[in-house]
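Issue: copy button drops trailing tokens. Both records pasted manually instead:
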Amino acid sequence: MNRPDLLPSYDITLRNIFAIGGSKFLRDVGAGGCTRLDTDVSRISKRAVDFLGYTSDRRLVHIEFQRAVDKRMPIRLLDYHGAILAVLTQSNADWASYQLHQVLFHVANDSRLHGRQTYVSTNLRLDYVAVDSRRVYARDLVDGGDVGDAILSVICEGGKDRGLVKDVLGKIRSDTGNRFSELVGQYLTLSHAVRAAEIISEGIIDMGWTIDARELPYVQQALAEQAKSIAVQYFLKECSISHPEVRITPDMVAQLSRMPVGTIEALTEAARHKSPHDLLDNGVPGYAGM
């Protein structure tokens, strides 16, 4: 998942889910039989892949999760395509001979985005597969999959059903890997992508568990990112009001995203009187948090 749209990042949670399971989900989206690759491409593309794996028939499989319809997604998939091959071939040139199969899994409820998709520009063509989350059934994942599949069910069709949520929590409780808090945190964090956190929190209470979600590391991270996302949005809103002539670039958003929340808030206050470019280059006079 990508962050220019200022939504909280779920890529770390997704990578951890696939590290413990999700095999049925992968089969359901056409990526069965994959061996997972724990490869970081962010140092080249400034993006982190949600899932990357390879198959015995020499295919690389890349899956990206998307929360909203984004016309720029084919361009981002091209960015991922180049970054994945650039990183992998640094250690083994043979990866260049693998065919890269890209899957876009989205929860945007747009039936037009399902099946094979083609993006054509002047001198290139990108083929990828889009999967509408409503075509993957939560109940099948819970009944026929592992604990990773059960957690992923929340972003699939029927994932907000209270009876199903109870079954997922039961599966988490029965897990023998001594990772109860981690699994609950992943489930809660991913639920924010489809606005199901309240239903799951109610399910936790119904199970009689005394859990403070704020103490779970994955939830802490999600809350921190949400706070930063809100701070960035306020800064952009202030810029649009006080400096409508200034164009906000992705690099400026990326620079903001690396700052502490307190710094972003100080920049927002100062942006009423000073240029955003000047503030990002030189900081807020007298403020020590830059």
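Record 2 (pasted manually too):
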Amino acid sequence: MTNTVSYLDIPKRDFMWDDVLEIGYRPKSGNKVKYVYMHKEDKEYIYSWFQRFLAEVCQLSTHDPVLWEQVNEPCEPSELPKSGCFNHPLLDNVKRKNTIVSYISGVLSNYYRNPAQDFTKKQLDYIVRCQNMIYSFFRCRGVNVGYNSNNFNDNELPFKIQFREY
């Protein structure tokens, strides 16, 4: 009999606190890389704020070069994993430190290459760190998040996230 564990019985995301969304997931059984199931809407929430963050920092970087330097500052491996993206055998074949921009870009690039691929359990802590940086960026810098042109209400700001295994 085939294992039919999926995301369908994982609770929908909900607020843990005023500014923290809890996103449920379940490890996929029998996979070596430890991919996880989660609701499609939850993955889309993460991807959309990753995209929005990159768009904002790229746009603002022309007028605020210090911001561009900050988001491209290499992070310690305890904050974000090193990247093998630039690992070339003809060069030095050494993994490099990620920046928030390079890590988020890598997550999005992987998604665009293979939309059916899910996050791995190992990525979840790093995704939380990135989303929390995004939360601070939009809330502390006063970045204009836009508005709905039909009713002129401000768009929703991002929230911090926390994952919970079910």
